[in-house]
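Model: You mentioned two targets. I'll fold them one after the other.
Researcher: Yes, keep them separate.
Model: Target one:
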Amino acid sequence: MGFCAASAVAALHFRSWCLLYRRIGLFSSLSSPKRDLGDRKLEPPHYPVLSVVSVLLSKSKQWMSLSDALCRVGRASCAAIASRIWALLAGRGTGSAAAEMSYGSSSIASGAKTATRTFDFGRTHVVRPKGRHLATVVWLHGLGDNGASWSQLLETLPLPNIKWICPTAPTRPVAIFGGFPSTSWFDVTDLSEDGPDDVEGLDASAAHVANLLSTEPADIKLGVGGFSMGAATALYSATSCAHGTYGNGKPYPVNLSSVVGLSGWLPCARSLKSKLEGSQDAARRASSLPIFLCHGKDVGIGEIKVRNTVPYRRFDVGSVRSLKSKLEGSQDAARRASSLPIFLCHGKGDEVVLYKHGERSAQVLKSNRFDNVTFKTYNGLGHYTVPGEMDDVCKFLTATLGLDGSHS
């Protein structure tokens, strides 16, 4: 089949698909002013037209399953996917605002291969501070979006002392889309805390965030935030920071000073509860256990003579140090959790990530020693953001990142 014929077939496929979804209101969120995030315009990443034509022809049998999946996700996420597909066919790029990032060594670096999967992250977009650099915040986009779109919105915020880093998630098959590839921080089957957890994908994305922040100067305060799935990834980073390790047990390398989540949910809620409860139980048992020790002055260091027995029974001093580090680690985790400021926002009209999931996530965090969680409700707000919500985010970041007395 020649290029012209292939293009024609692809165009017919896309036109039929667009007509179908226009009837069910797929593009309403693109045309509605209240869903337009102010003046922000979505700028999809660049892909060659020939690649898109090839995908459309080879994946034609998957359109019906994709259609069902898109309907389940909701109009807002569908709009992001539709915007990307339209841009793919039009051959649009990301513009000149993108900045290529270099990555230092970390437990899971950009493009690294884990035991079973490889994660290739997209382009990272940076918004430089307009004033004196006091803080750096990594902001994570939602499912099907990219870093460029949010960088344009963040650049307009009245926060001149913050450097914004907006990475793009890997493009991977997503279960909730019936296996259709999309930018996604982790695989997901259900947009709530009740779905199965892709810990490997979450660890890779959280490590990517930490990797971006690890190169910042020591006197710069660090934060992470996001929207929808980006908010879920930000919260996973927050719990990893508090516990001191990723889900795979490797140490989390940076200290976060502020966390923001818009229209998101808490992944790995069940494992978080068991981890923190285990730490609390260990500290509680240690503090309440009565122990009576007797020791003779003539006994050498590191050995205890048990009466009427030969030889000496020795104890390992190293095991004492290990016990101390474990108990101190439990106390440190509880202390980090209780002091980490987290700001969660959710609209009651959200039909993609339901309001009850956002509310439940805040409750789980608070019940697990995250004492500095603020959950704010917005009546009538759907799965998008509005200026009033972003104003609240600005106030929170100003307070938690020490920007109150800053001078531009």
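Model: Target two:
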Amino acid sequence: IIIFIVLGFVYGFSGYKEPVPIYPKFNYSDVIFSSIDKHISPILNTGYIMPQYKFILEVIMFQIIFIAASVCVCLMISTILKNNSAAVGACIILQGMFIILTNLRNAGSSIVPIFFSYGDAAEIINRQFIMKTGACYMDVYKAALILIIWIIASVIISKFVFNKKDILI
């Protein structure tokens, strides 16, 4: 957001109704799609154009959900570990692993896109995520649902562990 505002002041803000292309939906295919080297094929007439203001609002909302999920996972780790410095170290290591696994999402594993590919909200909204990972089953709503499940699971585990610690003390 900050970069968008700074660049907007430097180079001028573009029109808020400028179009943003949304790539078509994809299906699994037996044939390799040559330009992206994945076993997917585009579904014709499913791409569309979205106004830039709507795209930016969706990106911001998705980033808020992603940040909340990251914070909840870090809080869960800090409640599970008894030492605060170990919790901080574990969260830093987890964020480093997250960055590494996000860059390895093209490695062919079907589990990596499910857990570690939500950092770039624009890729998920405009469906570049599917072209990079080959995960045809993923869309914006499923990605948001997975992040909300991460939030709920982390809060429940944290509450259970915290109540258990509170009883033991």
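Researcher: Noted. Anything on target two?
Model: Residues 52-80 form the longest helix (29 residues).
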